[in-house]
Design a protein that fits this description.
- The radius of gyration is 26 Å and the shape is elongated.
- The C terminus is likely disordered.
- The protein is 78% helix and 0% strand.
- The chain is built from 13 helices and no strands.
- By secondary structure, the protein is mostly helical.
Length: 335
């Protein structure tokens, strides 16, 4: 793009748009239509400049001009109680549903890898010896050992808050660090897989795998699902850097990034539920079958929430992104 030619060709339109905006509400019907047309053209010009010939001063001027025009055309939007309701019933489940081709394979592969590593640890005493000394292993796995007392080692409320904070941080890291070509997300996911596998392997070698699963499943089903959703979304964000599709890389990454921020908020709420279960249900005196049933019921409710509400919203065109009027202008490129 020849920037001088571009500016010469279009600056009269920009000046005319600025003139109409300065007049505020004192516009005729024809002038209002002209303002809308000029706003759309200027938004397209801004997108072309960002992708082809970025000039900081000119981009800054047009960004302000487009923002003013958007505010005039669409009106000032005020937040209301409907926004969180819309997010929880439409935006968030739709974003999770649209990411299912990333997080479902992530979940399946992670669970299989945990089971495989757990079997390897459980059937190889030399591997167990490399993890910890025999006395330490006995303290971990014996009845009333550290694997069991861990969930009742602190008051339920503070324990639930601590678990929620830690898991929410891990999920947020997966979402944010995905932009770095997926590598940090894979590492975080592997650490979680390895921690689960060690527990499976050590408790199975002690003949107490049923006890371990009875402690992990009530909260772990929903907790791990949230982690897998975060990891899958992070991987998707990283892949967008590599292959942005029909959009510019900047536009595609911005869209996925905005959706990822919304996912972080939604997953924090999901992890709050799993944290409450881990703090109050897992260490409770309920029978094992009852605790597991609670975990299964909550997990099933989340999947119904995603696949029913989210699927319906996604088919209606919801992406979990900001409304079009709240996003910066963008121009698609050829595939």
């Amino acid at each position: 793009m020849d920037l001088d030619v571009f500016v010469t060709a279009h600056h009269p339109e920009w000046d005319r748009l600025d003139q109409l905006l300065r007049r505020g509400r004192r516009l005729t019907g024809a002038e209002a239509d002209e303002l809308v047309t000029l706003y759309q053209r200027t938004a397209t010009h801004l997108s072309q400049l960002r992708s082809s010939a970025p000039d900081p001063a000119l981009v800054g001027r047009l960004t302000q001009l487009v923002a003013r025009a958007r505010s005039t055309v669409t009106g000032t939007r005020r937040a209301s109680w409907r926004d969180p309701v819309q997010f929880l019933t439409v935006g968030f489940p739709a974003a999770v549903y649209r990411s299912r081709h990333w997080w479902v394979p992530t979940a399946v592969l992670s669970v299989l890898l945990s089971a495989l590593i757990g079997w390897w640890i459980g059937t190889h005493p030399e591997v167990q010896s490399a993890i910890a000394a025999p006395d330490d292993l006995r303290r971990l796995t014996r009845p009333g050992g550290e694997y069991e007392t861990y969930y009742s080692s602190h008051p339920a409320a503070s324990f639930a808050a601590q678990v929620w904070t830690n898991n929410a941080q891990a999920a947020a890291m997966c979402l944010v660090l995905g932009a770095f070509l997926c590598v940090p997300v894979i590492w975080i996911l592997f650490v979680n897989v390895l921690n689960l596998a060690v527990g499976i392997g050590l408790m199975s070698s002690a003949g107490r795998l049923d006890t371990f699963l009875g402690l992990v499943l009530p909260h772990g089903l929903l907790e791990l699902t949230a982690v897998f959703v975060a990891a899958g979304t992070g991987l998707r964000l990283g892949w967008t850097v590599i292959d942005p599709g029909p959009r510019t890389r900047r536009s595609a990454l911005a869209r996925q990034g905005r959706a990822a921020v919304g996912m972080a908020i939604g997953l924090a709420l999901v992890l709050l539920v799993s944290g409450l279960i881990e703090g109050f249900v897992t260490p409770s005196g309920l029978p094992t079958w009852a605790r597991i049933a609670i975990g299964v019921a909550v997990e099933a409710a989340f999947l119904v929430y995603v696949y029913v509400l989210g699927g319906r919203a996604a088919r209606a065109g919801e992406h979990g992104d900001l409304d079009e009027t709240e996003r910066s202008a963008e121009l698609r490129t050829a595939a």
